[in-house]
Amino acid sequence: MFLKLAVIATLCCTNALANFTSYEGYKVYEFTAENTTQQKTLENLAQNNAYDFFTLPRIFGLPIRVLVAPADQLQFQQTLETSQIAYTTVNENFGQSVEVERKLNSMYPKQRNSAPGSISFNVYQRYDAITAYLEELSKTYSSRVKVTSIGDSYEKRQLHAITITNGDGVANKNVILMDAGIHAREWIAPAAALYVIQQLVENYEQNSHLLANYDWIIVPLINPDGYEYSHTRDRLWRKTRKPVTIFCDGTDGNRNFDFHWGEIATSSHACASTFSGSSAFSEPETQALRDLMHSLSGRAKFYLSLHSFGNYLLYPWGYTSELPENWRDIDDIARAGATAIKTATGTDYTVGSTSNVLYPASGGSLDYALAKAKIPVPMVMELPSAGQQFDPPLSKIEELAFETWIGIKAIAEKIIEKYKLVDEEN
Ligand SMILES: [Zn+2]
């Protein structure tokens, strides 16, 4: 499927609407693996680029979703039936859902749909709106907010990082580092990052305890080229946009980091959605994030990368099923987030190492943050999808962003408590 999409993307032309990749007739199937044999079958199927596995957890009984093109559906269903995997079709026509979402999202002519200096969560905001919001915050709250560019994307969009402080002027505080949107199609992730920014800046009084001894540095859209492309051309675009071959563009940013790069569950085929890149750090976006991480060496205590979907709080390692030395600490902190969310909204999050609960994957920013940038507590949060589509419907964005904030806040409070104790002991 990705080869086909890439060809469409490379060869076509001027009319943006006409070029929007159609998923007409594509179905989304949902099922679970109940034993090792079924799991193996599914892992084999996932190797086939014809099937787009949105999720493939390794824990039996958790939902798995796959998008399948019309021509491949019969064979796919037969394979499931042969393996006695009971499935349901959660979306009969993914193309129609994409079209509905696209129309709704473009109904707001100015996107922002809010007063200057704030931002609304009733649409998925575009790059220009996000940029304008960040710049307005830096002007309105100049004593507490600074917006910098940490580099340019391949298509020369600035990669913005917002530094949020309590304005007391104390330098070199501990840092909480966040990014979102390395996977372009996971639109709820940048939305949730913007919500965190809004809470820390516009709702400062209620959250000042989170900024007393910590600065927050947030990159709400680390892959803006891919994100814009997923809005204008192909809803399921995941990668960056730098061309690789004459047929295929883009690298999976979250397989492009130089730690066990290219080893496991990544692809060396340029057309694949998990292409690890022509070399480690081949992409300007991952280089910028790497440099930001290293510039915060010793200060950054917590790194959080936002993704979707599937309700997971994940920690290293991705490249092996072994666990890092301090996994108990990280696990404890992650569970504080999961518990806070469960208490607030009833949503269940699964907590564990990437490789053990979701799937092995090497070259990710999570492993790099711990192993190379020495950030002691790194996590990935896979946000819920709230329905049939890849991302929550527009009406659910704010609700989910709020729920995510509850979890992040609880995790941050736990981090602050933990390192206060460590500092006191030293
Ligand atoms: Zn992702």
UniProtKB/TrEMBL annotation:
Leader sequence segment: 1-18
Cofactors demanded by this protein: Zn(2+)
GO annotations of cellular component type: extracellular space
Keyword field contains Disulfide bond: yes
GO biological process, one term: proteolysis
One function term, GO molecular function aspect: metallocarboxypeptidase activity
Record-annotated active site: E382
Keywords: Carboxypeptidase, Disulfide bond, Hydrolase, Metal-binding, Metalloprotease, Protease, Signal, Zinc
Top-rank taxon, per record: Eukaryota
Domain (Peptidase M14) ranges: 123-415
Family from the record: Belongs to the peptidase M14 family.
Protein name in the entry: Carboxypeptidase B
